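User: Predict the structure for this protein chain, please.
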Amino acid sequence: MTVATVEPRGFRTALSRFASGVIVMTATSPQGDVHGMTASSFLSVSLDPPLVLVSVDRRTRMHDFLGPVDHYGVSVLAHDQQDVAGHFAGRPCGLVPRFVWRDGVPLLDGALAHLTCRMYDRHTAGDHTLFIGEVRTLNYDDGAPLIFFSGAFDRLTPKGALA
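Assistant: Here is the predicted structure, written as structure tokens:
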């Protein structure tokens, strides 16, 4: 086991050992422009009211884009959406994203789950802002999720499913 002082590279490496699901957060500007960001820093906050949180680096375009936004979407990616994750992580691959619209919010077609959220609160936390949203609509399908572990995408096979 490597023991390191808490410096940015070691902190990031240690936290990469925590497997997480992958989402794309999407929103539209008042002019109708769609913008999205891949994230693994997503979690539920409360059941009543239904709240979720996405942590966004303050140095990103998505952070600036979310300034005037009062609604956003969360698409939980399926195992076969690695190209979608890469596209919204700033690694374009010629993908033209396909959206479905719910509650006036763009969501990614083919995702395992969709949430539309009303901006509930924002908190500055170090170099990030924690965007808390109240879930307004949701839908979901069965399937294998895309996960992120140790700096790479992978899939999780649901119990009882064939690999």
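The helical segments are 8-15, 61-65, 82-88.
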